[in-house]
What we know:
heterodimer, A: alpha+beta, B: alpha+beta, Arc Repressor Mutant, subunit A, 3-stranded antiparallel beta sheet, 5 helices, 14% strand
Amino acid sequence: MKVKKQFRYFTIFEYEKEQEYLRKMHRSGWKLVKVSGFGMYHFEECPPEDVVYQLDYNQDGLAHKDEYVKMFEDCGWEYIQDYVGYSYFRKAVSDDGTAEEIFCDDESRLQMMQRVLKGRMVPLLVLFFALMLPLFIMTLSRHEYIQAGCAGIVLLLYVVIFIEFLVQYRKYKSNRIQ
Amino acid sequence: MDQHIKKVYVPMTETAFLILLCLRKPNHGYGVVQMVEKMTDGAVRLAPGTMYGSLAKMEKDKIIRFIREEDKRKIYQITDLGMEVLELERNRIERLYKIAQEEMHHES
């Protein structure tokens, strides 16, 4: 069987983009086998099919994995693996063309983002203010421009991630009933 | 009743309402999914990520409680507090419905 590997980097809040990427791969005849290392996606050749991929981030679920996975399997989702706190699921689009998702309302989509925020974003923020920002200022004040430039690029990346998060968060929040 | 519970659950999402309604009898998450599908003639299909998150949150908020485990499925049942919340929400919806009925009746 033919296999291939692709490297893709998705920032913490780009799980929707990642889901789309995996769906597109499956549609073109490459099904996900596993994700490993630093964003290395392993695929194997398969008949092209429209399969929805979904990521959940649920630490409570990982702690009670048996029941957690059972709930998804009961609902017809195949559990693939966990990767840096995310759980990967997939389910074929049904014959009538309905593409299901693992969340059915914006309230629960928002709650998932809040779990990602707590689990991934808070440590990032601490790193940002305790390490990257002082590093940037220090190197700049010492006129170490190459180091400052590197730190600056990382800082910029952080800012992009923060903004992306805010945009998505507000989208779900404004859709909510309350 | 705790003000926090009231703030979070009144009004509540359709998902939360249907879960509480079903858990008046002990059931597991997937059982609720099936019940809701039947009750709504297939119009509402609750998704597993939403179900798992909702059940965990409701248990933490003590409006449902864990009864036992059966074949890796956790069985829950509504608590007295949960019944109170459900009743409050039912009354709220009923009041809205009545107002709408009267208003639309006047217009026609």
